[in-house]
Write a structure and sequence with these properties.
Elements lengths: L4 E2 L9 H13 L4 E8 L2 E7 L9 E2 L4 H14 L24 H4 L3 H5 L13 H4 L3 H7 L14 H15 L3 H10 L9 E2 L13 E3 L1 H12 L3 E2 L2 E2 L3 H7 L24 E2 L5 E5 L3 E6 L4 E7 L8 H11 L12 H11 L16 H7 L3 E4 L8 E7 L2 E8 L2 E9 L3 E5 L17 E11 L2 E9 L3 E11 L2 E10 L8 E7 L3
Parallel strand pairs: 1-3, 16-18
Antiparallel strand pairs: 2-3, 2-12, 4-6, 5-6, 7-8, 9-10, 10-11, 11-12, 13-14, 13-22, 14-15, 15-16, 17-18, 18-19, 19-20, 20-21, 21-22
Length: 497
């Protein structure tokens, strides 16, 4: 169930043509969307999902999870379980040594953490395989580098501790607490959850999993001042502060026009907009003066502009036109509906297929022995049959195969089972869902683009270049906390059989 009633876009002052132009530019700029919603006045004007996704899919939210954690803190504060101006150390006495804690860290309050104006300008934790598993405790052991409450700096570690705080005062993981107090009433999927960090706390800075419609509904709740169907689910004052520019988030003085302030784990954009923003462009953007909402799930980890590109396109093609008279357009509406029902990913270019005919005949199914390399791959092989293909290789974990399509995408499991699962630092012990597309970009160069689409998302680009009996390999990953073994360069020679 979704709280958003589907309506024709013209009925809420949005032209179907604007939405099509938005989609045109998203495609032209190579931005990989998984799904999107455009809503106004609490009604859904357009909703669409790309192949492999759908309205019931629980998608990783990455840093948009932070905004959910802030909402949970607000509900806990509304219920008298904490005070925003308390020092955070008050709630973690078992992790604090009063004799050794850094004075600036001792001064960090919950409000400072909500506005990311803590004493830290660097992470207190990182990859658990390298830096250890005690993520929560690390927040109280490190040394700050400036007084808390004075300057903004993005602090994911603080967001993590906020999630742990909610659990300490409520006895429940923060997403479970939100579901009990707020989301169940709004019809959220009961599977809405947050995966865990290495010490077993909810990964409140990154681990949220939710349907797109529920992601949008959480934002709509704030757009409506914390009220749903006449009930105040989050206090009006907390919501007002959460979506306001309480601190300047352009500490380093860049020329980015989208850095317009920061509220409680929520970014403020131009035109009074506010946004939940997560890695890969997990976005939910609300503009109060237009009662407008846009939400999307995507994987723009390999795009240079990422969510800023999306903001630019959204404003240019839709937001700046709001208020313009819109007349019903049956043909345009029908065309948009047809397009929304058939959204597909742009396949990897195969522009040099004709020039590569002789190369394919020579290399198809052959193996290349690689020199020692960063990926730990011993040998690699490319096999193509019509519009289907397979990349094979061997590493220390055994023989691997990944299927791909030419001119489209093949859905397969990425052939590793050691990537992190529901708790970071512990293997999933299953393959992640992957979608791969390949093509010839030069007469001797074949490229495979792989999207990982699971509880983690990421992009892997594999380029294979052939000349004589030699091969050059480049693997480039854009992903957080996994795919590290698939990043680097290699070379070798064909194995004569």
């Amino acid at each position: 169930m979704s709280i958003f009633e589907p309506v024709r876009p013209e009925s809420v002052g949005i032209s179907p043509v604007w939405i099509e132009k938005f989609l045109d530019h998203i495609s032209a700029e190579g931005l990989c969307f998984h799904g999107f919603m455009i809503c106004r006045d609490g009604k859904c004007a357009a909703e669409g999902y790309w192949e492999g996704y759908g309205p019931e899919y629980l998608h990783r939210l990455y840093s948009s999870t932070k905004s959910f954690a802030a909402m949970a803190v607000g509900v806990a504060a509304d219920n008298g379980l904490l005070d925003l101006d308390d020092p955070i150390k008050k709630y973690f006495p078992d992790m604090v040594d009063e004799e050794t804690i850094d004075p600036w860290v001792a001064g960090i309050t919950i409000r400072h953490m909500l506005t990311m104006s803590t004493a830290y300008s660097r992470p207190t934790y990182d990859d658990p395989y390298v830096h250890g598993y005690d993520w929560t405790a690390s927040y109280f052991r490190c040394k700050g580098d400036h007084p808390s409450g004075m300057l903004y700096h993005y602090d994911s570690c603080g967001s993590y501790v906020l999630g742990a705080l909610v659990k300490r005062v409520t006895g429940k993981p923060f997403m479970d607490y939100l579901y009990e107090k707020v989301f169940s009433e709004m019809g959220f999927d009961p599977g809405t959850r947050c995966i865990e960090g290495p010490d077993g706390e909810s990964w409140a800075g990154s681990g949220g999993m939710a349907r797109l419609c529920d992601f949008a509904a959480a934002t709509q709740l704030l757009l409506d001042g914390g009220r749903y169907q006449g009930r105040q689910l989050i206090s009006e004052q907390f919501v007002r502060d959460a979506i306001s520019p309480l601190v300047d988030n352009n500490t380093e003085g860049t020329t980015n026009p989208w850095l317009c302030g920061y509220g409680y784990q929520i970014r403020v954009l131009k035109d009074g907009a506010f946004a939940f923003v997560g890695l890969g462009s997990q976005l939910s953007v609300a503009i109060p003066k237009y009662n407008f909402l846009f939400a999307c799930n995507a994987d723009t980890t390999a795009s240079h502009g990422g969510h800023y590109q999306i903001f630019d396109i959204l404003w240019r093609e839709i937001v700046e036109k709001l208020g313009t008279p819109v007349e019903p357009d049956d043909a345009a509406a029908a065309h948009l509906n047809e397009r929304l029902a058939n959204l597909k990913f742009t396949p990897q270019s195969n522009r040099a297929a004709e020039a590569a005919v002789s190369t394919l005949a020579r290399i198809n199914g052959k193996r290349w022995k690689l020199e020692p390399n960063a990926m730990g791959i011993d040998w690699i092989s490319l096999s193509i049959d019509g519009d289907q293909g397979k990349l094979s290789w061997h590493n220390e974990r055994g023989d691997k195969e990944l299927n791909f399509a030419i001119g489209g995408y093949a859905v397969d499991g990425f052939p590793e089972t050691h990537f992190p699962g529901e708790r970071l630092g512990y293997p999933a012990e299953r393959e992640f869902r992957a979608m791969s597309s390949g093509g010839w970009t030069e007469a001797g160069k074949f490229v495979i683009r792989t999207y990982i689409a699971d509880i983690y998302i990421g992009t892997l680009n594999t380029a294979l270049s052939f000349a004589g009996d030699e091969i050059g390999v480049c693997m480039s990953k854009n992903a957080q906390f996994f795919l590290k073994e698939y990043n680097g360069w290699a070379g070798g020679k064909m194995i004569q059989e």
